[in-house]
Amino acid sequence: MRYVSFRRTDGTASYGRIEGDQIVDLGAAPGAPVDLKSAIAAQALASLSGKARVALADALLLPVIPNPGKILCVGHNYESHRQETGRAKVAHPSIFTRFADTLVADGQPIVRPRASTDLDYEAELAVVIGRGGRAIAAGDALDHVAGYACFNDASVRDWQWHTTQFAPGKNFPATGGFGPWLVSPDEAGDLLGVRVVSRLNGTVMQDQPVGEMIFSIADIIAYVSAFTPLSPGDVIATGTPGGVGAKRQPPVWMKAGDRIEIDIGPIGTLTNRIIDEQ
Q: Domains of the chain (ranges plus CATH)?
């Protein structure tokens, strides 16, 4: 199944299940949880049904989970990216955080801030937690996954590199593309051979299979949940392949008018235009 968060034509927010070219408005069902995160927490998605439908083409999509409690990101999780950055091999995932107010949906613009022109793309597979927990064993970790989505961990590189702490470059407003939808694990299938691809203005910039992550999805969930409890709707961005703009010669920075796509096969394609901050 595929699920979206969206805004109805009257401006109210809702969520639904995609059927063909339509969205079944699950948020309109009697007694439905208030949003997709709440429906995941209540384990209600499979039982919800609705009569109201919205054409997918007419819907204003929201970030898959507009209000995650946590967004945890993994750095340098593909060998090709580790090598291009010159980072040493490590025994544990490199974790940093994003804020929920940095997220933008499929079709919405990513904003290049006034403070910098060094805006880079990062194609990533995002994991949305379905069943929370603390100290989750790697062998049980995938049972805690509600689904997967595309993520663009767009980075303001000079601010990221001010110090060894990544947070400033990862948290400018409207820089985290997240969408277009949540794909359930059964529909996603075996992801190991699925390729994580970015295309800038139609040119492939990154292309590597999920199975070449240094730390697997299960291992990441186990590691993260050892130091912080995970809750339904929390998001983990699992890292980007090599080919980022900062490490090209000359560097390739996204600019106003550019179109960036994150394509992860059965998970979908996330598309955003770049605009300058006004």
A: 2-61 (no CATH), 71-276 (3.90.850.10)
